[in-house]
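Q: What changes when heme C is included in the input?
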Amino acid sequence: MNTIRLINKPFFFLFTITLFFTVNASFAQPDGAKLFKANCAACHKPDKDLVGPALKGALERWEGNEEMLMLWVKNPQKALETGDQQVKKLYDEWSPKGGMMTPQSLNDEEIMAVFAYADAYAPPAPKVEQGGKITYVKQDDSWLWLAVLSVLLITAILVLRSVVNVLQNAIRIEKGEDLESAIPVGDSIGNWLSNNKVLTFFITLFIVIALFIKVWDEALAIGVYEGYKPVQPIEYSHEVHAGKLEIECVYCHSGALQSRTAMIPSANVCMNCHNAVSEGPLTGTEEIQKIYDALGWDGSAYTGETTPIEWVKVHNLPDHVYFSHQQHYVVGDVDCTECHGDMTKETVGKQNAKLTMAWCLECHNTMEIDINSSAYYDEVHNRLLEHGEEELKGYLEDGKITVRELGGFECSKCHY
Ligand code: HEC
Ligand code: HEC
Ligand code: HEC
Ligand code: HEC
Ligand code: HEC
Ligand code: HEC
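A: The predicted holo structure follows.
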């Protein structure tokens, strides 16, 4: 009886705690950051004007008129129809630039969470450059230097030969012998070669191998397009969108969050903003018009005549290679910049890296993993532990774990 009591007490305690947290969780605050990103980020920034005004301080601006504010977010059209002065002023100021805000299906509590997020928002500190970044070594010109050196050496040998000949003749004069002219270069090389057969064999072998490597290198360079930046059907600009407007890369390339490919956004994604923005500072209405043409949008309705935008693919890994954006961006926490360079300074897409096998391996060889960073690595950690404490210590001996140590050099990880 006593033992049962002993077991039951802690059990009952745990049960109550669990119940408390479960009940509590169902009353948990809505996540303002998530709601903002999912519903408002296409047109608003917390701290800067975009298609609509910055949301920071909205509650303050609408103080005393909160009910109208809620109505505005849920149904702008209806709010406008009430004839409220603040709504009218807002609409008159912004609709020429941004059109009318779309109705948002959020409840009061969720809207308040979004405002709380916007008010508390501080722009992220710029990412501090850490050590251990990879630098790409430029192909060196060692072949050219080798050629120059060889010419110099051969000249030196020829000069020395004639010097030796002059000296030998000087000795002959002293001894009273006849003068001799130097043996022709060709003959003397022939003599030397037949006297040093083994050495000759190795020199020949060396030259053949060197030539072979050179040809192999050149062959591998076929299909390597570093810096490739083809003309695109729309003069789209990363500098404007990802740079000036600070739209997140994954807003458009959302595939990077959950799949192998980062994906090119469909024209519908462009329309999240361009149903309201029909003019840009550089190209006016001309380029944005192409989005409307593609979707068959005549400014007020869809005509049904669609013609997909034919973006030119920039990056092309061979079919036998497996690469996953999710594995790198989400699991490995590798930033886009690491592989694509600073796209916020480019117009259309550009190939930044060589995409050779050596490029992949160079990073896997040096890049460190923070094994405490995600649940994915908990599993890896346990797997390593299964091999024994000793092996794990071996990995951690130098205080770091690289991609290579986790299998980033295994052929089968990258090749089908
Ligand atoms: C399709 C674009 C779009 C989306 C999405 C959008 N808004 Fe707006 N919003 C606007 C525009 C444009 C205005 C300016 C008024 C106008 O012209 O309609 C505006 C104005 C506002 C204002 C008034 C700001 C002020 O300071 O007076 C608030 C508040 C607001 N939006 C909240 C939100 C919230 C919250 C969300 C997400 C749940 C959201 N909006 C989603 C376009 C959008
Ligand atoms: C570890 C290196 C690496 C990182 C990090 C990376 N990419 Fe890529 N990206 C590549 C490679 C390699 C390809 C070529 C893939 C192919 O041809 O299959 C590529 C292709 C692309 C493409 C062309 C479409 C596709 O997926 O085939 C886009 C768009 C792209 N990347 C955007 C991004 C964005 C946005 C990020 C950050 C969220 C990112 N990449 C992070 C290496 C990387
Ligand atoms: C999150 C909002 C947003 C999305 C999504 C978006 N744009 Fe834009 N885009 C803008 C804004 C705002 C401008 C005007 C920039 C300015 O006035 O400085 C603009 C400008 C442009 C321009 C004109 C550039 C110039 O300088 O003249 C083009 C072309 C364009 N966008 C194409 C696209 C295409 C194609 C897509 C889809 C792949 C797209 N945009 C998606 C917000 C967006
Ligand atoms: C507003 C939407 C938008 C945003 C934001 C955006 N891109 Fe793009 N990106 C595109 C479109 C459209 C293309 C296809 C046309 C082109 O190549 O420029 C593209 C192409 C690319 C390509 C070349 C893809 C290929 O064909 O291989 C890369 C790489 C890329 N983007 C990286 C990035 C990175 C990194 C960021 C963030 C700094 C980013 N993009 C932000 C719309 C966007
Ligand atoms: C800038 C650094 C960087 C570059 C370049 C890079 N990777 Fe990676 N890669 C990583 C990191 C970090 C991880 C670790 C994520 C993980 O633990 O799976 C990783 C993991 C992987 C994995 C999973 C390995 C495993 O153990 O499951 C594969 C497959 C892979 N990379 C393929 C490639 C290919 C193919 C390329 C070249 C086209 C490439 N990577 C280029 C950094 C890089
Ligand atoms: C981190 C990823 C990765 C690993 C690990 C890897 N490869 Fe590759 N491999 C690549 C990529 C990417 C290419 C395509 C290079 C190109 O197109 O220039 C490639 C190309 C090749 C090629 C074709 C020749 C060439 O360079 O185009 C062969 C053969 C090859 N790999 C064999 C292997 C073998 C054998 C292993 C194991 C020892 C291995 N690879 C491990 C990424 C990898």
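Observations recorded in class: Strands lie at 368-369, 401-402.
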